[in-house]
TrEMBL record, chains A, B:
The lineage of its organism: Eukaryota, Metazoa, Spiralia, Gnathifera, Rotifera. Pfam families: Hydrolase_6, Hydrolase_like. GO terms for cellular component: cytoplasm. It comes from Didymodactylos carnosus. Substrate binds at residue 172. Keywords: Hydrolase, Magnesium, Metal-binding. It comes from the Eukaryota. Coiled coil: none annotated. Divalent metal ions. Mg(2+) is the most effective. InterPro entries: HAD-like_sf (IPR036412), HAD-SF_hydro_IIA (IPR006357), HAD_sf (IPR023214). This is 4-nitrophenylphosphatase. Belongs to the HAD-like hydrolase superfamily.
Length: 258, 258
């Protein structure tokens, strides 16, 4: 049901409820323009003894800012919460330089990622004809220490969320990276071996393209993972055709087989 | 199938394939440590007339860097591609200051988001006992101009991807924001109205908590959306109980109903 409010149903609506929760942006104002009648409604509901709350996801103003804003438009709203920091003013959107000649946005690992870069990428992607590519969607980089290094996938997630568009992802395990070398060198997938250490990128990449896949245990995957894999019944895409302790062992076996 | 490579099957494996694709990190090296036998294998396969490709998602080195690296370890790899920029050295992970007293990571809209902040958040979140909160998951902020302003949801997407953890999201349409005011003010959901302009946050928020929901058409949603909603059969979570042109009209109807 989605019923229009009319003079027929408004009284019972008001009588049946004691609390009214309002979103602010787009409901009470499109700042600096206050929606006509907004203050009337708030004061009216207050006069009728209703409780009023304002629930906004806009965390760029402090409680004091909101209290002042309501006072300015003629409604006395009490505040009750800790303050949240405000720095939305730091971005002057009318000063953002955008180039209408852009035909492609490529999201990659970027140690200098910033809000302004994500804003520019998402804005260019508003035009449907702009191509959206991601170098890869690795969530993090392999490191040997205690630090989680965000990967290209973390940057890409931000651009994807802000733009509402889905990228074509070039890197493993996705198809484009295979197509480039297949076309360039006329490769036959059934005669090609993919050797890798990571199930969800390397092995999935090879399996997705119909290559023969070899897992080595010198990197991201160890022997106990392999044992788990052997018992796995459901998702076959990450299961290698072969595994071996490392490339050194493979070299030795090839040498010995002559 | 996931077969171990042995002296029994290695010959047919090599004979049946003409191309070998290698991932690098964790397969040929865990830099600066070269995997024993890696160069042997590459040279052996080359001697056997096999084509070799290196396919890595690690875009932080140039083609020249890789060519030099292969030459240094004793394999002559040709390069064939444009260069990609390299700036991974910009982050010295051993200089990142992490505080083991941190018990909660809160991801919010941050106009100063950076790689280092995402890295720190994801690293803290490696400890399972650290709470992961998001203020909200709004993908973008409402703006009147041509620019897409990324919302807290874009920042949160980066932290979620890098950490591999799912946050508890505080803002609309999620439950925590309701629980706070319900508990503080002892609200009765069946006697509470939520007024909002956005279906996926405001209206879903109210519906999720069992409130009566009123959609106004002064913000993110217009009359044609409402007509689409009325015909929508599947997802009911975003359909308001009532709609009205704006709060001014609601004030007027309430006034007139006295």
């Amino acid at each position: 049901m989605c019923e229009q409010i009319t003079d027929k149903n408004v009284s019972s609506l008001v009588e049946k409820h004691d609390t009214f929760i309002f979103d602010c942006d787009g409901v009470l104002w499109n700042w600096p323009h206050v929606i006509p009648g907004a203050v009337d409604l708030l004061n009216k509901l207050t006069a009728l003894g209703k409780q009023i709350f304002f629930v906004t996801n806009n965390s760029t103003k402090t409680q004091d800012d909101y209290a002042k804003r309501f006072a300015d438009i003629g409604f006395n709203a009490a505040k009750k919460a800790d303050q949240v920091p405000s720095d939305l003013q730091a971005i002057k959107t009318d000063e953002v330089q955008l180039d209408s000649d852009i035909t492609c946005v490529i999201s990659a690992l970027d140690l200098h990622m910033s809000y302004l870069k994500v804003l520019k990428a998402a804005t260019h992607l508003k035009r449907k004809e702009v191509l959206f590519l991601g170098t890869n969607d690795d969530a993090s980089l392999p490191t040997n220490d205690e630090v989680v290094m965000p990967g290209a996938g973390a940057v890409l997630a931000a651009v994807t969320a802000a733009s509402g568009r889905l990228p074509t992802i070039l890197g493993k395990p996705h198809t484009p990276m295979w197509k480039v070398i297949q076309d360039e060198f006329n490769l036959n997938p059934t005669k090609t071996v993919m050797v890798g250490d990571r199930l969800e990128t390397d092995i999935a990449f090879g399996n997705n393209q119909g290559l023969t896949t070899i897992l080595v245990l010198t990197g991201a995957t160890n022997e106990s993972h392999v044992n788990e894999l052997k018992e796995q019944k459901t998702d076959k895409s990450n299961i290698p055709n072969f595994y071996i302790s490392g490339v050194g062992k493979l070299a030795q076996l090839i040498n010995d087989s002559k």
